[in-house]
Amino acid sequence: MRKPIIAANWKLNKGPSDTEDFIKSFESRLNDLPKGVDLVLAPPFISLPKATELLSQSKVRVAAQNMSEQDNGAFTGEVSALMLKEVFVSYVILGHSERRSIYGESDELINAKIRKAHELELKPIFCIGETLGEREGGQLEEVLRRQLTKGLEGITEKQILDTVIAYEPVWAIGTGVTATPEQAQDAHEFVRSVLTDLYEVSVSEKVRIQYGGSVKPANAAELLGQKDIDGALVGGASLEASSFAELIANGVVE
Ligand code: PGA
């Protein structure tokens, strides 16, 4: 059985003081939430120290939304894996479609970041997903296979077990349009089959694959109820503690 993992991707929202407000409100709801789920919050860089400090006694873990593939040096505006470790970050979202499309991150760069994260024992949440044009053009499988194969180049069996894959169809992100549970399950099954091409089946069966793209309290149960869907990466519906808590309560059946 794979333990579900639900992560809040706040994107460019919530400085330290909003982060504090959210965490206080969320923590007060934690006791009533299902226990058999890993919970992760991903605030902007500037709010990471506040989040890890407030959650130091909590089971909720903290993720960064990005990271440099470099260790240090003349890379203005970047943040290294070691710096994230220093403020007790556990996970890092890599390859998000907004990083790929707006900031031009390539599969090769994302692979370098995933390798660097593992080198420093940060757990990557590695995002993949097709655009609407790619899906309608019949390229869904080709795109997912390419992103996975290139992104995971050089990643060992031990490391893939500490990697979370997030399948996020680009057309469903922030649009209110969600993949149907069947569309999502089919894509997840395909992702797992590619993992089985790359690793032993006993390994690929253990890798957690989140779904992301307009997940909300009302659709979490159906989506997370699918065989190969092991959690969610949530944007909009994670910005309010009440809605994120409701989504977790609805999505995780114990
Ligand atoms: P959304 O974002 O839930 O707002 O669609 C998901 C994501 O981008 O990770």
Q: Which features characterize this protein?
A:
42% helix, 254 residues, TIM Barrel, binds 2-phosphoglycolic acid, alpha/beta, 12 helices
Explain what this protein looks like in three dimensions.
The protein has 254 residues and is an alpha/beta fold. It has a single domain (5-251), classed as Aldolase class I (TIM Barrel), CATH 3.20.20. Helices cover 42% and strands 14% of the residues. It has helices spanning 16-30, 48-54, 81-86, 97-102, 107-119, 132-136, 140-151, 157-161, 181-198, 201-204, 220-224, 241-251, and strands spanning 5-9, 38-42, 61-64, 91-94, 123-128, 164-167, 209-212, 231-234. The structure holds 2-phosphoglycolic acid. 2-phosphoglycolic acid binds at residues 9, 168, 173-174, 212-215, 233-237. Residues 9, 168, 173-174, 212-215, 233-237 line the site of 2-phosphoglycolic acid (PGA).
List the helices and strands and how they pair.
Blueprint: E1 5-9, H1 16-30, E2 38-42, H2 48-54, E3 61-64, H3 81-86, E4 91-94, H4 97-102, H5 107-119, E5 123-128, H6 132-136, H7 140-151, H8 157-161, E6 164-167, H9 181-198, H10 201-204, E7 209-212, H11 220-224, E8 231-234, H12 241-251
Parallel strand pairs: 1-2, 1-8, 2-3, 3-4, 4-5, 5-6, 6-7, 7-8
Bound molecules: 2-phosphoglycolic acid.
Q: If classified by CATH, what would the architecture be?
A: Alpha-Beta Barrel
Q: Write the CATH fold name.
A: TIM Barrel
Instruction: Give the total of domains.
Output: 1
Number of helices: 12
**Largest sheet entry:** 8 strands, parallel, barrel
Mean of residue pLDDT values: 97
SSE string: EHEHEHEHHEHHHEHHEHEH
Number of strands: 8
What is the terminal separation in angstroms? 12 Å
